[in-house]
Amino acid sequence: MQPKLFKVLVGKEIRDDFNDSIQIFSPINNQIIGSIPRVKNKYQIDKICHEAKEAFAIYKNTSFESRKNKLLNFCELLNKNWDEISNLIVQEIAKSKRDAIKEIERTIDYIKLTIDEYEKMINKQPMIIDSNVHNIKGKTGKFYYEPLGVVLAISPFNYPLNLLMTKLAPALISGNVVVYKPATQGSCLGAFISLLLYESGFKNGEVSCVIGKGSEVGDWLIENSDINMITFTGSTSVGKRISQLNPLIPVSLELGGKDAAIVLKDADIAKTAANIVKGAFLYNGQRCTGIKRVLVDDKVAYKLVDAINYEINKLTVGSASEGNFDVTEMISANSIKYNLHLLLDALQKGALTDQNIRLINNNILAPIVLYNVNSNCKIYYEEQFGPVLPIISFKSIESAIEINNESEYGLQASIYTEDIELANKIAKSLDVVTVNINQSPSRGPDIFPFGGIKNSGKGMQGIKEAIISMNRIKGVIEND
Ligand code: NAP
Ligand code: G3P
After folding, report:
1. Is 382 a catalytic residue?
2. What DSSP state is assigned to residue 283?
3. Are the C-beta atoms of 306 and 316 separated by less than 8 Å?
4. How many A from CA of 105 to the centre of ligand 1?
5. What is the C-alpha separation between 375 and 395, in angstroms, rounded?
6. Is 124 within 8 Å of 144 (Cβ atoms)?
7. Do 364 and 328 meet the contact criterion of CB atoms below 8 Å apart?
8. What is the largest CA-CA distance in the chain?
9. Whose CA is nearest to atom 4 of ligand 2?
10. Position in ligand 1 atom list of the atom nearest CA 213
11. Contact indicator for 436, 413 with CB cutoff of 8 Å
12. Whether pLDDT at 158 is above 80
């Protein structure tokens, strides 16, 4: 199968050559999807970032209307190219066509909401602080939002369009320019998106797509002195490296998670089990907000296990290229190997399961639930990012809170109970950013603030928070 030769937008140029290229293979059948020009040395990175800085000097003075129109043009191109984009997502990351189309729709909504929220922000400018606001004598403070400059965006494989545009849209609407590096598994899409951005009107160096392995080009990008802000979504280890390599510039880090579903003894077991299975196994558990562990009152533990086993049997399992299955191919052999390692470790340490361990075509791991999981098991602590769900019993609500909070992660949690007042009370004690009551966690609705604490991240995302993270305040003080 001849690979498609992708071109990529780097500043003002659409490049088909960088004296090197990277070949991308599908996790579905290991067939080549495409070949893309890739950056291979620090000189190229420095040149890209320097030219982005030069482009910023012009772009920051463009009108809101012109920036808005370019992003709306881009939304139209996403709509027009939905079939090619969704096919690329299916091939590159083995997401079902149904979920790939949902990702496109969600991204269009996200961009339009970002434009609206930014317009509301600038229409309230300048923010005035003077004697009418406080008993300030002889001064009038006028405060404006200003773009930061060159925004470096690094995105993960699991939402190759959405988690890229949740970074690029707020940056570009605010007057920043962007240098972005998509995940290697997602680079064909990332390159294709750069061409749509060019066609939308971003032709003056506002957008540069850097194709290259994070382990090879990452440090050069992160440490580059022309970068003014970094927005990253991915693993905690890389997030920590970003903070270490460039500690002074503003960063937004959306990292790992170990979201707990806390099931109290009065929960509706059937409804709870259905919701937990959806929350744990959507896109094979490869979501940061996926349910990564269940903490259940030991009085109802076995009822819940039976109900979850029943729900798991309803999940459809198959190739992303052959239909809209619930569970499809995993992103990589390493990911499968890691999940099997956690699974076998738990079984050797006393955990139990009622499913058979099934690896189909060597790349689809059938969903599996472990119960009787104890604190000697690695999956009690580690983020599996796969279709393996550990169930841990607790004897009291206090111990459930303690188990939740001892995790190194602090993204989201969910509580299942009929007692909403009690759920709100427990929520206040959970060391996470968001608690969902009787519903599995999610990043959406995108207008909600979203973020993590501890090893789950730094800074807040969400439509408004992302815009604010890519702007700073400029104050002008007039004195009587
Ligand atoms: P990852 O391995 O950290 O990769 C994320 C991005 O970072 C990719 O573009 C990757 O490029 C790049 N990267 C890798 N090493 C780098 C380095 N040394 N310097 C700079 N960039 C580097 O994470 P992933 O496997 O894509 O995603 C899984 C993890 O991300 C999980 O922990 C998940 O919880 C987390 N995640 C969090 C959220 C959230 O919203 N909080 C959302 C999605 C995923 P390459 O692909 O070339 O390696
Ligand atoms: O892992 C991606 C993270 O952003 C989750 O998004 O919408 O599936 O909760 P969502």
Report:
1. no
2. G
3. no
4. 23
5. 15
6. no
7. yes
8. 78
9. 443
10. 47
11. yes
12. yes
Catalytic residue among 188, 209, 288, 377: 288
Measure 232 CA to ligand 1 centroid, in angstroms.
8
Closest CA to 212 of 151, 286, 150, 154: 154
> Which residue ranges form the domains of the chain, and what is each CATH number?
4-255+457-479 (3.40.605.10), 260-447 (3.40.309.10)
> Can 188 be counted among the known catalytic residues?
no
User: 274 vs 178, 179, 215, 279, CA distance in Å?
Assistant: 41, 41, 39, 9
Which residues does a 6 A CB cutoff place in the pocket of ligand 2? 158-159, 287-289, 442-444
Instruction: Provide the token pair at 411.
Output: 């993204």
pLDDT reading at 247 higher than 70:
yes
* Crossing angle for the helix pair 162-174 and 187-200, to the nearest 10 degrees: 30
- Expressed in angstroms and rounded, the spacing between residue 235 Cα and the centre of ligand 1 is 5
Find the catalytic residue in 51, 103, 254, 382: 254
Among candidate residues 245, 240, 231, the one with its CA nearest the CA of residue 459: 231
| Peptide bond before residue 390 is cis, with ω within 30 degrees of 0 | no
- The first and second tokens of residue 186, run together, are 């997602």
Write the pLDDT tens digit of every residue in 263-296: 999 999 999 999 999 999 999 999 999 999 999 9
Q: In this structure, which residue's CA is closest to atom 7 in ligand 2?
A: 443
Average pLDDT over residues 182-187: 98
C-alpha 168/C-alpha 153 separation (Å) is: 7
